[in-house]
Specification:
Blueprint: E1 3-8, E2 18-23, H1 32-41, H2 44-52, E3 60-64, E4 74-79, H3 90-108, E5 112-115, H4 127-139, E6 147-152, H5 155-167
The structure holds adenosine-5-diphosphoribose (APR).
The site of adenosine-5-diphosphoribose has 25 residues, from β2 and α1.
Length: 168
């Protein structure tokens, strides 16, 4: 089982093998964390993504990290569920984002992976529920990844992740 760390940071500055971005199905980039990752990785990220698009919600694909600084070698793109009230299988789709991203991390031999709080921004997934799903899914997914770093963008989000980890 991977060790889980929680940090409050801009994910594009994390020194990990692979950074996960909360993408949309086009993989062309957008706002939020996806916008930050695409800005840091440069225009080749959208070109590589376009070749793999469309990506279904809950799935994950890997591209090179292009202009992101070493040691980051890969970007794992995953598409979270748009929150529609909770009865449209959103929880299972979100869990699948974490599971499939870890599967892709194993396929590329990544040992350290940073995740944003997938789907809790534009897609509106409640942060507390999403944090519990993230922690439980990571803890229940066999993986060769040694360290998963859950990156909160602000202190409040960090406290929510820490509470979920402490409760697990
Ligand atoms: N580093 C870490 N976390 C960040 C960063 C950053 N630089 N920027 C934003 N976040 C956080 C947000 O605060 C939120 O908690 O990432 C989390 C996910 O929010 P979004 O980026 O809005 O992602 P999501 O809710 O999954 O919506 C995805 O938004 O940007 C578009 O192309 C994207 O259409 C897709 C949709």
């Amino acid at each position: 089982m991977a060790r889980i760390e929680i940090v409050v940071a801009d994910i594009t500055g994390e020194a990990v093998d692979a950074i996960v971005t909360a993408a949309n199905e086009s993989l062309l980039g957008g706002g939020g964390v996806d916008g930050a990752v695409h800005r840091a990785a440069g225009p080749r990220l959208a070109e590589a993504g376009a070749a793999l698009a469309p990506l279904d919600p809950g799935d994950a694909v890997v591209t090179p990290a292009f202009d992101l600084q070493p040691p980051v070698r890969h970007v794992i793109h995953t598409v979270g569920p748009v929150w529609e009230g909770g009865d449209q299988d959103e929880a299972e789709v979100l869990a699948s984002c974490y599971r499939r991203s870890l599967e892709e991390a194993d396929r590329i031999g990544a040992r350290t992976v940073a995740f944003p709080a997938i789907a809790t921004g534009v897609y509106g997934f409640p942060a507390e529920e999403a944090a519990g799903i993230a922690v439980r899914t990571i803890q229940n997914t066999p993986t060769a990844v040694e360290t998963v770093r859950l990156v909160a963008y602000d202190a409040e989000a960090g406290e929510i992740l820490q509470a979920a980890l402490s409760a697990s």
